Amino acid sequence: MSESSKSSYQLPKLNYSFEGLEPVISKETLEIHYSKHHAAYVKNLNEALNEYHKAESENDIAKMIKLQSLIKFNGGGHVNHTLFWENLAPIKENKNKPSGKFLKAAESSFGSMQNLIEEFNKQTIAIQGSGWGWIGYNKMNKSLEIVTTVKHKTISAFGLIPILIVDVWEHAYYLQYRNERSRFVNEIWKIINFEEVEKRFHKAIV
Ligand code: MN3
Predict the structure, then answer these.
(1) How far is CA 14 from CA 11, 20, 96, 134, 165, in A?
(2) Omega cis (within 30) before 12
(3) CATH T-level topology, domain 92-205
(4) CA 161 to CA 117: how far, in whole Å?
(5) How many helices (H) and strands (E) does the chain have?
(6) How far is the CA of 7 from the centre of ligand 1 (A)?
(7) pLDDT tens across 4-35, in order?
(8) How far is the CA of 35 from the centre of ligand 1 (A)?
């Protein structure tokens, strides 16, 4: 296999420093989460894809099938974390207030933004084990929906376009919040980047 055909997904740059999301997410938590956990998903994704390309060139279908779960897990981890980092912003940037078309849609789908947050928190806190809370846009119904996925499953299977995502794997909060996932999920709204949310929503509705 030539070098050029090697898979090379990269850890995306963060739009803030490791201290940038404090006090909601500590420097230590963010640094480990990003440069250990996310980095490992990227590395493992590239390795699995390279093995997959090799198996494909050798017509080894059994090997290809075996590699699919690795690609799904690490690829989902990479995609989800990338969405997650982008929809967070430091408190001092003042992007943490919902507005515009997204806010209107939240009010029409859930009655109020407060209802949406309460429902999101309830479902996300209740995830059994590791997973992600999502707000997705349903193009068919033209509405916002809350869903949860386990491990690193994405929401594409639900036919939803991702608008907002929150990581509730223990590595996302345990150093600071210990077993109190609910406290973490309640706090996270202080650092949600609603400018990014609004941008995604605009793209989703066209
Ligand atoms: Mn994570």
Answers:
(1) 9, 10, 17, 20, 16
(2) no
(3) minor pseudopilin epsh fold (3.55.40)
(4) 18
(5) 8, 3
(6) 22
(7) 568 899 999 999 999 999 999 999 999 999 99
(8) 11
Whether the CB-CB separation of 38 and 77 falls below 8 Å is answered with yes
* Per-residue model confidence as pLDDT tens digits over 138-183: 999 999 999 999 999 999 888 999 999 999 999 999 999 999 999 9
Domain definitions of the chain by residue range: 25-90, 92-205
72 Cα to the center of ligand 1, angstroms: 15
In this predicted model, what pLDDT tens digit does every residue of 57-66 receive, in sequence order? 999 999 999 9
- Report the CATH number of the 25-90 domain: 1.10.287.990
Ligand 1 mean position to 169 CA, how many Å? 6
Residue 61: beta bridge partners?
none
Average pLDDT, the chain: 96
Task: Report yes or no on whether pTM surpasses 0.90.
Answer: yes
CA of 80 relative to ligand 1 center, distance in Å = 8
